[in-house]
């Protein structure tokens, strides 16, 4: 495992505190649902912490205003199915980098996930979009 100054790209924790590699973790369950396997991925800096409530509220408001437009755009470009498991029911917009970690409500930070995958993913930073749609 990397040294203590390295952070998990999925959960944002210090590598020595990260449990993403453990069986039964949220990340493992999410990956299994999509038929993928866990690949360790490390960052040199932590995600933004302590996003003020007024910024979270503004980002959620922006998402609510643009929801139908962004949903239609993602459904057209990536197909109307879950980016992780391929399910076609109960689709919702999901932030690739969650608002709680400094992500913005913009089309390039959104993906379509089914409700079950979105619930498991939680605040993990996982990009399931096809490679051509990633930044």
CATH class: Mainly Alpha
What is the typical, i.e. mean, pLDDT?
Answer: 90
Estimate percent helicity.
25-40%
Count of individual beta strands = 4
CATH architecture: Orthogonal Bundle
What string gives the helices and strands in order? EHEHEEH
Any idea how many domains? 1
The helix tally amounts to 3
Largest sheet: 2 strands, antiparallel
Distance between the termini: 28 Å
**CA radius of gyration:** 15 Å
CATH topology: the name is: DNA Binding (I), subunit A
Poorly predicted residue ranges: none
Structure, explained:
It is a single chain. The chain is of the alpha+beta class and 135 residues long. The protein has a single domain, classed as Orthogonal Bundle (DNA Binding (I), subunit A). Helices cover 30% and strands 10% of the residues. Strands 1-2 form a two-stranded antiparallel sheet. Strands 3-4 form a two-stranded antiparallel ribbon.
Task: Write the topology of this structure.
Layout (H helix, E strand, L loop, with lengths): L6 E2 L17 H8 L8 E2 L9 H26 L12 E5 L14 E5 H7 L14
Antiparallel strand pairs: 1-2, 3-4
Which terms would index this structure?
single chain, about 140 residues, alpha+beta, two-stranded antiparallel sheet, 3 helices
């Amino acid at each position: 495992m990397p040294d203590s100054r390295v952070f998990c790209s999925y959960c944002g924790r210090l590598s020595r505190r990260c449990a993403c590699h453990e069986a039964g973790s949220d990340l493992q369950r999410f990956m299994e649902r999509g038929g993928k396997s866990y690949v360790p991925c490390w960052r040199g800096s932590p995600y933004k912490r302590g996003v003020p409530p007024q910024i979270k509220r503004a980002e959620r408001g922006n998402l609510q205003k643009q929801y139908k437009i962004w949903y239609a755009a993602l459904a057209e470009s990536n197909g109307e199915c879950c980016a992780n498991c391929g399910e076609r029911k109960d689709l919702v917009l999901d932030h690739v980098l969650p608002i709680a970690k400094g992500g913005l409500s913009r089309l390039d930070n959104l993906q379509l996930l089914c409700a079950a995958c979105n619930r498991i993913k939680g605040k993990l930073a996982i990009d399931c979009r096809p490679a051509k749609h990633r930044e």
